[in-house]
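Risk mitigation, structural track. In case the binding assays with nicotinamide-adenine-dinucleotide fail to produce interpretable data, a predicted complex structure has been prepared as a fallback.
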Amino acid sequence: MSCAHAAGIRPATFGVLRLPRNIVVGAQQRFAIADIAAELGDSVLICTDPRLAASDELQTLVTSLESRKLSVRVYGETQAELPTPGIVACVEELKGQDIDVVIGFGGGSCMDMAKVVSVLLTHGGQPSDYYGEFAVPGPVKPVIALPTTAGTGSEATAIAVVSDPALGMKMGISSPHIIPFAAVCDPELTYTCPAPLTAATGADTFVHLVESFTAITREPTRTLANERVFVGKNVLTDSLALDGIRLLGRSLATAYKDPGNTEARADMMLAALYGGIVLSNAGTAAAHAIQYPVGALTHTPHGVGVGLLLPYVVRHNFSAIEPQLAQIADALGREIKGLSVRSAAIAGVEAIDEVIATIELPATLQDLGVQEGDLGQIARLSLNSKRLIDNNPVPLDLESVTSIVNAAYAGDRTIR
Ligand SMILES: NC(=O)c1ccc[n+]([C@@H]2O[C@H](COP(=O)([O-])OP(=O)(O)OC[C@H]3O[C@@H](n4cnc5c(N)ncnc54)[C@H](O)[C@@H]3O)[C@@H](O)[C@H]2O)c1
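Fallback model:
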């Protein structure tokens, strides 16, 4: 809304909260899955990837499901970043099988695989039939999401992200119908994440929380709740976003440096879940829009790309989100008492920089191997992600996205 843009974003008074029907959080809670699945049917498909398919954890999960007399099939070939041909291959393999429940066991790629496989098993067709918002025509076979990274938050979201080789980019399928029936968040499953994966997935969580908390505030029209999956700044998710930022601020660096720290892992699992809830209802913005072409070009993990971009995006948006940046500064432990809003907001930007620096992400697009000649194309392709561009707190056009991309290339961290 232009008035929101002109005056900076207002606090939200409108909210939408679409969630999994069951959310279970805590150490050992993966053992709750067998009972949840048994209530939904007799036949379970587990979508996972080759690494996790070979793990003891997968075997334990299968054994616990079988102990409830469920028939279990494992598809263990999910590929990272979810190329669409792999999804189609999985569904082909399942032809003629009755599947009642689909479990996504792994990082975002496996959970999104479970969502898209469930859509195709229920409604047929190809992944591309469902790109965009509200294209899934009705309920799908129930999905149980069991994350092993902290994380994408996919366990709680209404979106699945796929890589479409025909289009050369990532595409989203966004529909409330694909929100998992159950999200089971057991931090013990993340203990094996190596430091670079903890950093990339933790950065993803951080960007979900910050971008959703600083998203555009829309006019709450009579139709808004049903015409968008991602509604912008949201009174029902703002406090979760701040709680998630607080948890992440106290524990991401520890989880990164000390992978066996159980308290830090628990905090991060919860922060990731909150990140998923807030992104799925409020929605993310420019850092995600720009990461799509950057990821396609550099094959950078999603979290690394969005994390690298965040400091440049919040600087670009600065004048519209000063009060929110001040709240972020506070949530990240900065002393802001007595400061002007502008000074507290600057402390917020510095605190964001520090989180990203602590986990040693690359600092510029140049560090990712982007060439100066690629910048124009990155800016142009970013504008294709209209839902993300429209969710940014200040309006974005080619010129403004180009200025963010140029700053991220050159490492220009000026606050204007
Ligand atoms: N649906 C959503 O809401 C949403 C949100 C953000 C990102 N995504 C998507 O999620 C995908 C990225 O997911 P991700 O970052 O979780 O990574 P991932 O699922 O692609 O996994 C990356 C690698 O980490 C390994 N791994 C996973 N868990 C591990 C563990 N506990 N120990 C050791 N290794 C482990 C995997 O085997 C894989 O090799 C991208 O496709 C991204 O676009 C989806």
